Amino acid sequence: VTIRRSQAEQCGQEELARCSRPLQVLSSTSDLTIATNKEELNEICPDLYGGLHCIRSYTRRCMSLQHRNHFNKLYHGTNQVIRDLCREGHYQNDYLRHAPCLRMVKPDYEICAKKYQDTISRISLLEQRGIGNATDDTVAIVCCSFREYLDCSERTARRMCGEETAAFTRRFLDKMADSLIREHCEDYSVTSGWCSYELSASSRNSLSVALVATLATFHWMNAR
Predict the structure, then answer these.
(1) Domain range holding 196?
(2) Distant-in-sequence, close-in-space partners of 184: CB < 8 Å, separation ≥ 6
(3) What is the pTM of this model?
(4) Is 160 exposed, middle or buried (0-12, 13-18, 19+ CB in 10 A)?
(5) Nearest CA to 160 among 91, 210, 92, 112?
(6) How many alpha carbons lie under 13 Å from residue 203 in its C-beta half-sphere?
(7) Contacts of residue 168, Cβ cutoff 8 Å, sequence gap at least 6
(8) Which residues contact 41 (CB under 8 A, 6 or more apart)?
(9) Cβ neighbours of residue 48 under 8 Å, at least 6 residues apart?
(10) Domain count within the chain
(11) I need a surface site. Which of 18, 19, 102, 130 has the fewest CB within 10 A?
(12) Which among 122, 135, 149, 143 has a CA at the least distance from the CA of 195?
């Protein structure tokens, strides 16, 4: 019984959350910068790699091959972003060039993020109380809420830092969540009628690791 309980704990949602904790620096909706210079990147990259290793170990230990392949596909973009950020090259240089201005406009991003964060908090609270589950309506609310946040954050980056920084921010988030967008949020575009606010075409396919973690976990837990 003790062994079975230990195995269950090692494969529970809490363990996945623990593995994902180092990646939360990438998911902050109020700050799109994890570092503003090479020294800060060198400090944080080992933790990011550790989080990826923990998640990889979790999926091998706790998921079937089918679920593991699906989960890894959803996290592929996040893996790629971390590898690109943490090794010397064009992408890292590009990021470090834009990071100082993005860090300066954090107060404006916090305004953009508040509604999205409140929405996620309400959904999480309902989940904890056993009131809700990952229904189509829940996914729609999360997808549309995040699209709204991104529209606001892109306008902020463009207004405060210029078009190049806004475009980099968009590409940064696109790369992290492209697979998840196709898997879960493709139906919740402006033309679908689900999301009532206006959204620029440039930000239609953006999402963050926060939503990757939320929907990937929802999908796996409901598929077990």
Answers:
(1) 2-223
(2) 139, 143, 215, 219
(3) 0.69
(4) middle
(5) 112
(6) 24
(7) 94, 95, 98
(8) 34, 35, 85, 86, 92, 96
(9) 22, 23, 25, 26, 82, 85, 86
(10) 1
(11) 130
(12) 143
Residue given tokens 């926060």 in the structure block = 210
41-97: pLDDT as tens digits? 999 999 999 999 999 999 999 999 998 988 888 788 888 889 999 999 999 999 999
- What's the farthest any 2 CA atoms get from each other in the chain? 60
Handedness of CA 124, 147, 154, 164 (dihedral sign): positive
Which tokens hold the place of 113?
């993020």
Q: In which residue are the tokens 């598929």 written?
A: 223
| 29 DSSP 8-state letter | T
Only one residue has tokens 């706790």, namely: 62
Task: Tell me how far CA of residue 74 lies from CA of 1, 47, 205, 207, 211, in angstroms.
Answer: 34, 20, 14, 12, 10
Query: Any idea which residue has 């100082």 for tokens?
Result: 100
Supply the pLDDT for residue 38: 93
Q: Which two tokens stand for residue 179?
A: 């697979």
CB–CB of 31/103 below 8 Å? yes
Residue 73's CB is within 10 A of a number of other CB atoms, namely 14
* Residue 32 phi, psi dihedral angles, 5° rounding: -90, 15
Cα–Cα dist 203/221, whole Å: 29
* CB of 152 closer than 8 Å to CB of 112: yes
